[in-house]
Amino acid sequence: AQGFAMNAGGAITTTDASAAAVAINVNTALGGTGGAALRSITTGSGGTLTVATDTGGNATGGSITQTAATLLNVGTGTVALTTPTAGASGIGTAGANIRTTADTITAAAGSGGVFITETDGAAFTATAIGAGPISLTSTTGTLTVAGPISTGSGAITLSSGDAVALNANVGGAGSSPITINVNTDGAGAEGFTQNALGTITTTNAGAGAVAINVNAAAGGTGGATLTNITVGSGGGITVATDTGGNATGGSIIQPGGGLLDAGTGAVTLTTPVAGASSVGAPAAKIQVTADSVTATSGSGGVFINETDGASFTATAGGSGPINLMTGGTLTVAGPITSGTGAIDLMGASIVQNANVSTAGTGTISATATTGPITMADGTTSSTTPGTGDINYNAAGTITLATLLAGGAAGVNSTGGSILDGNVAALNVATGAGATLLAGGGIIGTLVAPIDVQVTNLANVNATGQIGGVSIVINGTTGDNTLHFPFTVPGRIYFNGTLLYPLPPPLNFPGSGLGGILEEMAMTLQGSVPRAVTLKLAPSGSVMLSACEEGTISAADGTEELQIYCPADSEPAETQPAEAQPAETSR
User: Fold this and answer.
1) Nearest CA-CA partner of 349 in 327, 371, 323, 324
2) Which pairs with CB-CB distance under 8 Å and at least 24 residues apart come from 158-162?
3) Which of 119, 211, 300, 536 could form a disulfide with 515 if both were Cys (CB 3.0 to 4.6 A apart)?
4) Phi and psi dihedrals of 235, rounded to 5?
5) Closest CA to 181 of 214, 205, 210, 139
6) Which pLDDT band holds residue 159 (cuts at 50, 70, 90)?
7) pLDDT digits (tens, 9 = 90+) for 167-181
8) Rounded to whole angstroms, how far apart are CA atoms 562 and 572?
9) Cα separations (Å) of 122 from 75, 97, 119, 508?
10) Which phi and psi (to 5°) does residue 87 adopt?
């Protein structure tokens, strides 16, 4: 076990700046378990310092350690530290890191792990095996991952007082939890950057599988630029620029594409609410695969595209918009709220289990591209206090809890119904008008009407009917009625009153038609025996009564009215507008 040891007062110094400035080789290919205990070693700036205990491919060599408060100083040069990867050897310890000043550092160790602290930034490559942890720290300057950083299952921790840049993979095929701490001095705009090859991979499926923390409580405006991060399915990916309550941190972006893949796990992205930071960007949304997505941003907003369905919680400060998309079911699991920004939700279907809110001129739009929108009882989507519109659009049925629109509200089911899903007696309240369209079903039921408080006009339409009923609405509107086309196939009720179709006015002259005659022209229809066609006008003073036993039907409710009389009756006589009402008789 004989090895190399630098005792108190021992130091190695040279001005040599070559690739062979200092080389310490312990053991041989034949064997040996010796290690290397270092103190201060200095070469000319640009020189190379090599320390190895696996000389000649030795598989049993010992660890490389260093006395505290000493330094391996090669200036702009290279420090290369190597122990056998097959054993328990390590480079440095958790309590006594190898301290370096270099531009390039490479380290390979066994299950004892790698622990290095660099003084002013360097490019690192480091590996360990088994449960060997890797801890790389740069006190100042940029910590750059120039080559792979990997171990078996040991924790990987990268820390820098300034920036961290990934130009190579971190994690490899192992199951390491990975933590990256950036701009830890809490000053400046240094942040975290993943470049094209700087992927992060681990099979770890724990809640802390990958954590990237930028800035500190004391300050810092650094952001995070992401590409690909993959954890074991069920694991967690966390990226934060508001570390320790920081209020000035920058944005989290993914401008070059990539994917944050947590499988069935959780992705959490957080920036300070108080500033102008964002999570993603309108033209470069954060791409995510996860079961749960939580995002918090400043006025820059939140922009996320999830691949296969997820539960969302999101907050944006100030006028920050929120744009959430998924290829599967979008579940509103926690509040989605912006100060005054627009909120847009899109999924194959939408399940709303929590409130959605904005104010000012902020709007809310929810779109289910292939399925329904279902609001849980008691949930609310609100743009009040404010003037923003609310629009819910779905290919399937829309089940409403409560929409509170400072502006107008639109509810459009292109292939289903609009139904009441709320115990409380309010589904839609607006500061302007409302439009409810059921393109494949009904609006409300006699047992559970849609309840409204509409300031202006309420326009409704339904293409289906159940039990002869198409639309049932209770509440108030600007003109105390509903506006609808006469193509609605079933009955329409408003506050329990039948609006359409009106019952025929039999045996009651002058009742129920609501049509006023002006310059009537009457002709007998040849194709319909004993039918009389009357031209109607919106004003005048002559009312029409039906045959005593006849029936009445309107062609379109505004232009033409047909009166059918029994076979033994005579057609009605026409009279000018100032005449008395025309009556049919037998």
Assistant:
1) 371
2) 159/135, 159/184, 160/121, 160/184, 160/190, 161/185, 162/121, 162/138, 162/188, 162/190
3) 536
4) -80, 170
5) 214
6) very high
7) 999 999 999 999 999
8) 11
9) 10, 15, 9, 98
10) -110, -155
Contact between residue 360 and residue 337 where contact means Cβ atoms under 8 Å apart: no
Strand spans (E) along 322-396: 322-326, 329-338, 343-347, 349-352, 356-357, 364-368, 373-375, 380-382, 390-394
Would you call 243 helix, strand, or coil by DSSP? helix
Helix (H) or strand (E) holding 564: strand 560-564
Please give the structure tokens belonging to residue 562.
């047909």
Burial class, 529, CB count within 10 angstroms (exposed 0-12 / middle 13-18 / buried 19+): exposed
Average pLDDT over residues 429-456: 98
Give the range among 51-65, 257-271, 321-335, 551-565 with minimum mean pLDDT.
551-565
Q: Is residue 288 within 8 Å of 314, Cβ to Cβ?
A: no
**pLDDT per residue over 357-391, tens digit each?**
999 999 999 999 999 999 999 999 999 999 999 99
The model's pLDDT over 567-580, given as tens digits with 9 standing for 90+, comes to: 344 444 333 333 33
In sequence order, what E strands does 109-220 have? 113-118, 122-127, 134-138, 143-150, 156-160, 164-166, 178-182, 192-194, 200-201, 210-214
